[in-house]
Write a structure and sequence with these properties.
It is a single chain. Helix content is 50%, strand content 16%.
Length: 684
């Protein structure tokens, strides 16, 4: 048992038992005793004269262990233990000395010799040496006998103590095991009682909850019954009041009936006179009816003529746009900002020779030849329109507004803002905070609403929906959503009617142009930007603002659907210019941007080959990029495309400007075929 300590006296007795000498006395022990040692010398001197007898041979002590008697445990009367009898260890090998006399063993005394009938020769008994030997032997035997008795008594006492200690130890161990068993049983019983108590508590709590629920249910039923009773009482009171009011009304109506009868007689007389007046005026009304029918016929003729004129206007407007080209390229050079005026490189040598039509731009670049000579290259480019640095946002939109009008007519229109980082693409598309600096997106929405309101007089009703997406590292993000990016997968789907949808994105109905400013601010706060060597706040993704316009004419039954995509492309630059090669994230972004722009060029080139009337079907690689696949229905033959190339006026960006101009020239030389409007005629 853990709580019982071993008495100090028992530990001392155990230590003494372990320190006791062995019980058997060997020859080596006798040699250590001085008295035995002298006796041994005497015995060895007379060894040749005495013959050993049969009784003088040593027997090894018995090694058989007898069973100890059973003893009753004093601490626990129910436990009976058996005492272990201690025995001495027998010597490994006992050999008698050569003389036949063992040290410590008495020789044959005189009486024994007399009984055996053997006598020692007289000459030996008279020998003085023999007598001294006998005296010494007898003296040693007496001392050895007394010591043996004393040691045996002490050994018996120590053995008894050891047996008692072992018995006590066994009793304690037995009691400890029984106590542990009882404690284990007690714990098991306690655990079972605890589990049973917990189960009873659960049952009690469940019954309490059931009773409380029944109580609440009965209380609700009681309240409902009281409320029903109160309502019935109120209804009864109201019915009684209504009956009283009806009785009063009936009496009042009786008096009123008499008055009305008199008024009816007067009215009949008045009606007869009015009938005569009506018959007189009907003659004049027939003349007015004829005039009204004539005006209605003229109005119907004018409406039909206006409808025909509207169709002619749309047709002529589309022809004008087709003559200008279904894919056009504008070039806009931004002005120098304050921080760039102090740069050492200065402005690039850019000229605008076409002052009347503003369709040419010339760039001069100087390089050093292999011989060390300076060489100047002059490169001229021609586009549909070139905007110089002083051009305002209003002047740019005047050229774009004709394409926006095509959206109302049922065409798909895509306007790209393309160029290197920091060339003014976002400013062109989104603009600034003032009305004069508004970009293409708010101005296009305002024009669509104004045109739609003007078409109401001709029976047209338009609804508009807006969507703002971002393509970052070939992943579509919803800029108008509320959740974090990359939490949902957005799939692009094209139906047979030519409508494009993106799953799990927010599409907001637009009720006025003022709502667009809020959408732009929300989208700008969620768009992915980062700092590069080209720009401190560079757009690292493509943003696509999609405006769907659906119209229906209540007079003619016609319907049309157009789509306007305003795309702000990410900055196109080489890795060496942007410094993105040293940043893992910027490197991945730049590779994704250049891949999508390259895919856009491949799509436009394939559309150009298909538009030239190829002998066989041409595969258009729309799926090479999320950008081109998203704009698939707005880049083909049923669309009109405008690319606004933005350039930086600085000489440090001249190489990037030349690359952008060459790409824009490739796009400008592409013909994508004839566009068709998505319109449904009225059912006959």
């Amino acid at each position: 048992m853990a709580g019982i300590k071993r008495p100090r006296e028992l530990e001392d007795i155990g230590d003494r038992v372990h320190k006791m000498p062995p019980f058997a006395t060997t020859g080596a022990d006798l040699n250590d005793d001085p008295t035995r040692q002298s006796q041994g010398e005497t015995d060895s001197a007379a060894a040749d004269q005495i013959q050993p007898s049969a009784s003088s041979k040593l027997r090894p002590p018995s090694s058989r262990s007898t069973r100890a008697p059973l003893s009753t445990n004093t601490l626990n009367s129910n436990v009976t233990t058996r005492k272990k009898r201690s025995t001495s260890v027998p010597p490994k090998e006992i050999r008698p000395p050569p003389s036949g006399i063992v040290k410590g063993q008495r020789t044959v005394d005189a009486d024994a010799l007399n009984k055996s009938g053997k006598r020692v020769p007289k000459s030996t008994e008279d020998d003085p040496r023999w007598q001294r030997f006998e005296a010494q032997r007898n003296a040693g035997s007496g001392v050895h006998g007394s010591n043996r008795g004393r040691i045996g008594a002490e050994m018996q006492e120590e053995r008894a103590k050891v047996n008692s200690l072992q018995t006590a130890q066994l009793n304690l161990e037995t009691e400890l095991r029984e106590t542990k068993s009882q404690e284990l049983l007690h714990r098991r019983g306690l655990l079972a009682a605890t589990n049973e108590l917990a189960e009873l508590k659960k049952i009690h709590d469940r019954k309490v909850r059931e009773l409380e629920n029944e109580k609440r249910q009965m209380e609700r039923e009681l309240r409902d019954a009281k409320e029903d009773f109160r309502l019935v009482q109120n209804d009864l009171l109201m019915e009684r009041e209504a009956a009283s009011a009806l009785k009063a009304t009936l009496a009042q109506q009786s008096s009123i009936q008499l008055t009305l009868q008199a008024q009816l007689d007067a009215s009949q007389r008045l009606a007869s006179s009015l009938q005569q007046e009506v018959e007189r005026r009907l003659g004049g009304a027939s003349e007015l009816q004829l005039q009204l029918e004539m005006l209605q016929k003229r109005n119907q003729f004018l409406e039909e003529e206006a409808h025909i004129n509207e169709q002619i206007r749309r047709k002529l407007h589309n022809q004008i746009q087709e003559l200008k080209g279904n894919i056009r390229v504008f070039v806009r050079v931004r002005p120098v900002v304050k921080g760039e005026k102090d740069e050492d490189s200065g402005q690039a040598p850019i000229e605008y020779p076409d002052e009347r039509d503003h369709q040419q731009i010339v760039l001069k670049s100087s390089s050093e030849s292999a011989m060390g000579n300076q060489r100047t290259e002059v490169t001229s480019f021609a586009f549909d329109r070139v905007f110089e640095p002083h051009t305002t946002q209003i002047e740019v939109f005047d050229e774009v507004s004709q394409l926006v009008q095509s959206v109302i007519d049922g065409y798909n229109v895509t306007i790209f803002a393309y160029g290197q980082t920091g060339s003014g693409k976002s400013f062109t598309m989104e603009g600034g905070l003032t009305e004069a600096t508004e970009g293409m997106i708010p101005r296009a929405v305002r024009q669509l609403f104004q045109t739609g309101n003007g078409m109401k007089s001709k029976g047209w009703e338009y609804t508009m929906d807006g969507q703002f997406l971002e393509i970052y590292n070939e992943t579509i993000n919803d800029l108008l959503g509320n959740g974090e990016f990359d939490t949902r997968k957005h799939d692009i789907k094209h139906d047979k009617s030519g409508r494009t949808t993106v799953s799990d994105t927010v599409t907001l109905p637009l009720r006025g142009p003022e709502q667009v400013a809020t959408l732009l601010a929300r989208a700008q706060s969620r768009r992915s930007v980062a700092a590069t060597l080209m720009n401190q706040r560079s757009s690292r993704s493509h943003s696509v603002f999609t405006l769907r316009v659906s119209g229906s004419n209540t007079v003619t039954g016609e319907t049309c659907e157009g789509c306007l995509n305003l795309v702000d492309l990410a900055g196109s630059e080489r890795l060496s210019s942007s410094g993105a090669a040293n940043d893992k994230d910027r490197l991945k972004e730049t590779q994704a941007i250049n891949k999508s722009l390259s895919a856009l060029g491949d799509v436009i080139a394939a559309l150009g080959v298909a538009g030239e009337g190829a002998s066989k079907a041409i595969h258009i690689p729309y799926r090479n990029s999320k950008l081109t696949y998203l704009l698939q229905n707005s880049l083909g033959g049923n669309s009109k495309t405008l690319m606004i190339l933005n350039l930086s006026p600085m000489a440090a960006h001249l190489s990037e400007s030349l690359c952008s101009l060459r790409f824009a020239t490739k796009v400008n030389n592409t013909t994508i075929g004839k566009a068709t409007a998505k319109k449904l005629a009225a059912a006959v």
